[in-house]
Design brief:
Length: 319
């Protein structure tokens, strides 16, 4: 802990010296989340990270999260320097949706409006009409459905089918999934709920249908934290990456948060829901990138300009 304290001091100093701002996701190391908040950066869900990065005047942003978050920041502000603690921090949704296969899928369905989740590469976004995050995907699809649009959706099949059921829209789904949320199990959750009958169930919509079906609240990370704070309950079962529990416990002191079960046959099985790529963000590699300026995100300018169109559409819709 003493060593971590010294490392945090070093980061505070370096952020000031380099006039850089730290933008962190709720799934990264708790110390990084705290540093982002206390130094005037932000800790939030993907939509807020994008908006904050775009609007902040700093010339250097350090994005503690996964690669698509750094790329989105770069696409929105090509003139800024975007650094990441580890450039290999990716996402199973992004990996499972290569641009060439995705382009072929779109080519085969030219009559559909292409809506992609934020968790995709710049090249995939460049082909899309709309980008959405989990906090606003439902509203945007509702809006498109009301205009009579048929939708091609990629890459998360669980989020896609959740939105499809809620809106009744005609959606053709790419079959990707998040390797963390895909592990939550409906039967084990039911058993756990029996042990905690008063607990409210908070679920990220990347989770399988059997888990979403038991939710009291389905939402993005920020929306789940707000629900933890605002719902009149003492106990919560949380089906999303357990990095979020740090913020939930701070936002709602005195309430009890229990990880949703991820595997096994008993209600007592332990969750191991933590994204291996989010976990690549640490104090030491954050110090390294601030000291050296390496691990800069680059996006091909032409691809970036094209990808920006679908991100701007979402941000304008959200405004
Ligand atoms: P949020 O936009 O809800 O923060 O989700 C991002 C993510 O990667 C969830 O796994
Ligand atoms: Fe991707 Fe899942 Fe990790 Fe989120 S938690 S970054 S969706 S692999």
């Amino acid at each position: 802990p003493a060593e971590r304290g010294a490392m945090k001091d070093r980061i505070r100093h370096l952020l000031k010296e380099k006039q850089a701002v730290l933008v962190a996701h709720y799934y990264v190391d708790a110390d990084l989340q705290d540093l982002a908040e206390e130094t005037g950066g932000c800790v939030s869900d993907s939509l807020e990270m994008a908006r904050f990065g775009r609007d902040h005047p700093a010339k250097t942003l350090v994005v503690a999260g996964v690669r698509f978050m750094g790329e989105t920041a770069k696409i929105l502000s090509p003139e800024k320097r975007i650094l990441m603690p580890d450039l290999d921090a990716t996402c199973s949704l992004d990996l499972g949706c290569p641009a060439d296969e995705f382009n072929a899928f779109c080519d085969a369905h030219p009559d559909r409006t292409v809506v992609v989740y934020a968790n995709t590469s710049a090249a995939v976004k460049a082909r899309a009409d709309w980008m959405v995050t989990s906090s606003i995907g439902l509203e945007i699809v509702q809006h498109l459905h009301a205009q009579g649009k048929k939708i091609l959706w990629a890459p998360d099949k669980h989020l896609g089918s959740y939105i499809q059921k809620k809106t009744g829209a005609d959606m053709l789904l790419w079959q990707g999934s998040c390797l963390v949320h895909d592990e939550f199990k409906g039967v084990e959750l039911e058993l756990l709920k029996r042990e905690h009958p008063k607990a409210k169930i908070l679920v990220h919509p990347e989770s399988p249908e059997a888990v979403v079906a038991q939710a009291d609240v389905v939402g993005s990370t920020s929306q789940l934290i707000a629900a933890a704070q605002n719902l009149d309950a003492k106990e919560f079962i949380v089906a999303t990456d357990n990095g979020i529990l740090h913020k939930m416990r701070m936002a709602a002191p005195g309430k009890i948060f229990i990880d949703a079960p991820t595997a096994g046959n008993s209600a007592t099985c332990k969750s191991c829901a933590h994204c291996p790529w989010m976990a690549m963000n640490g104090l030491q590699n954050l110090i390294d990138v601030l000291e050296t300026g390496r691990n800069e995100i680059h996006v091909d300018p032409a691809v970036g300009r094209q990808a920006k169109v679908c991100i701007d559409r979402m941000l304008d819709f959200a405004a």
